[in-house]
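User: My instructor asked us to take a sequence, write out its structure as tokens, and then describe one feature of it. I'm not sure where to start. Here is the sequence I was given:
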Amino acid sequence: MKVTKLRKVIARNKKAIPGLVLLSIVMVAAVFAPLLAPHDPNEQNTSLRLRPPAALGGPDGFVLGTDPLGRDVLSRVIYGARVSLLVGLVSVAIAGVVGVVLGVIAGYYGRVADAIVMRLVDFQMAIPFLLLALGVMAVLGPSLRNVIIVLALTGWVVYARVARAQVLAIKQKEFVQSAVAAGASDLRILVRYILPNILPPLVVVATVEVGRTILAEASLSFLGLGVEPSTPTWGSIAADGRDYVSLAWWVSTVPGFAILLTVLGTNFLGDWLREKFDPTLRI
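Assistant: Let's start with the prediction itself. The structure tokens for your sequence are:
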């Protein structure tokens, strides 16, 4: 009986389960990195540089081989999960709060507020992401905090547009109009009636944006515009092996797979949430 119920749960959540599994693996690696990593991620040993994984004849104890400085690739990838998750979650949280607040103000009050916010959105979308990142990093310098700032600055737009569209639709509903007629304050209407109804699509957007942000952080780190060089990140690890792809493919391939699986997990989870929150997709 329990097996049958389990099968039904898996059948109803075909996308959620693999997404949760992939993200759980990354989270466990990030939280327990000091316990899981077999070596210090920054420990160098040039006598072991560019050694293949142990299964391919490499030295024992280096499961995924070593990089050009003799550092353990597995340990660096495990520690790199910390930076990716931290940047992804914090950037999305900041961008989400800013974007939702501005989008709700634009959609609810309209007119001048709407015009100002939408012009800010247009201005933001007119600036290429890489150009903005270069400008901010050139002024502030590479650091974890600055990467989060850049990604938050470029990510709030999508939340503002979704929130505005949802508010424009919901504020015409009868229950909102009844609250207005009853003399409810704007703050009460927004908090009690509008925000709870616009959260589902915003949660879906945030879930997918976590993956996009992780990919963006990896891209910046690959170009040398991310965090400090001493901090292992998936993008910087891949960059360390770009000159040795034909000789030591594992250096760039392993972090590349880590990025692939993490982003895939967030996309699976986002698709499942979208299907749950949008009844038209279940027809």
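For the description part of your assignment, you could build on this observation: The CA atoms of residues 78 and 95 lie 26 Å apart. Try explaining in your own words what that tells you about the chain.
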